[in-house]
Amino acid sequence: MNREELRKEALRALVEQLSLEQLEKNLFRGTSSDLGAPAVFGGQVLGQALMAAARTVDNGHAAHSLHGYFLRPGDKTAPIVYDVDRIRDGGSFTTRRVVAIQHGEAIFHMSASFHRRENGVEHQRAMVPVPAPESLPEQQRNALALPIEFRFADGRPPLGEGRWGPSGQTWLRTVDALPDNPLLHQAMLAYASDYSLLGVAMQPHGLDFRKPGVQGVSLDHAMWFHRDFRCDDWLLYEADSPSAHGARGFCRGSLYSRDGRLVASVAQEGLVRVRT
Predict the structure, then answer these.
(1) Which of 6, 8, 175, 249 is the most buried (most CB within 10 A)?
(2) Is 135 among the residues known to form the active site?
(3) Residue 5 burial by CB count (10 A; 0-12/13-18/19+): exposed, middle or buried?
C-alpha cells in the first residue's frame, strides 16, 4: 500500500479502537496502536474513555465536558479495560466516572458530563484570520502513517527546529471521511486534541519530545464541547501556553470549524522535564 492508503487504514483501525468491546453492563475493553512513543498515546485513552462513558448514557444527552488525569504510562501491548461508574442520571445532566485499568492498576481516570440539548443565549470569541488549509503544506509528524492530517497556519517551524513563541494555529482533520456518528466525532477530536497541545509549551525553548533528555508527558486534560462539528472537515486549533514553571507547562486551546464557529475548548498541564 502507498502512504495515503496506509493512513486511511490507520484511520479505519482507530475508528475500530474507539468503538470498544463491551464486556459487561459497565465494562468495556480497548486495544492500542503504536505511535512510536514508549507508552500508549494519551489521546487514544481520552477518546476511548469518552466513548465508554457515552455508551452508558441515553441518546438524548450529548457530552459537553470531560476532565481526566493520566496516572501511569499505558502498556501498548496489553488491552485496556474501562470501568464506568454511573454516578448520576438527571433530566438535564448526566454524570459518569471512568477508570482505565491495565495489569490490575488504574492508568487514567476521567469525569464526564452529558447535557440534554437546550436553547439559550449565545456568543463566542471570534476565530483569528489565517490562511486556508489548502494553501499550506502538510506537516509530517513522524515516519508513521497517522490518521490525522496537520497544517500549520502561522508559519512556525516544526517542533524542535528553532524557537517560536508559546502559541500556534494548526488546521487538522482526519485523513478520510467518518461515519455520521456525533459521538465518534467527539471521541476523535479528543484523540486529536492531545497531539500538539503540549508542544506550544516546549517550542519557546527549542525542545522536542524526540530529543535526548527531553521528557514531555500529559498530566491531565480537560475538554468542553460547545457546538456540533465534523472531525473529517478542517478544524482550526488555536493553542497557547501562558505559563511553564516547575517542570510543568500549562496549555489551552480553542477549536473552530472552518466557518468560524467555536466548537470546543481544551486545557492541559504536562510534564516538561529536561534531564542533564
Answers:
(1) 249
(2) no
(3) exposed
Q: Give the separation between CA 16 and CA 78, rounded to whole angstroms.
A: 16
Concerning whether 241 is annotated as a catalytic residue, the answer is no
* Listed residue (226, 171, 214, 162) closest to 196, CA to CA: 171
Active-site residue identified among 218, 241, 257, 265: 218
| Catalytic residue flag (residue 140) | no
User: Three-state SS for 42?
Assistant: helix
Helix crossing, 182-193 with 42-54: angle to 10°?
Answer: 150
Residue 141 — pLDDT band, cuts 50, 70, 90?
low
Task: Please give the Cα distance from 86 to 94 (Å, whole number).
Answer: 9
- When pLDDT is cut at 50, 70 and 90, the band that residue 33 belongs to is confident
Hey, CA dihedral for 8, 138, 127, 199, is it positive or negative?
positive
Q: Which of 44, 194, 254, 265 is catalytic?
A: 194
User: Does this model's pTM top 0.90?
Assistant: yes
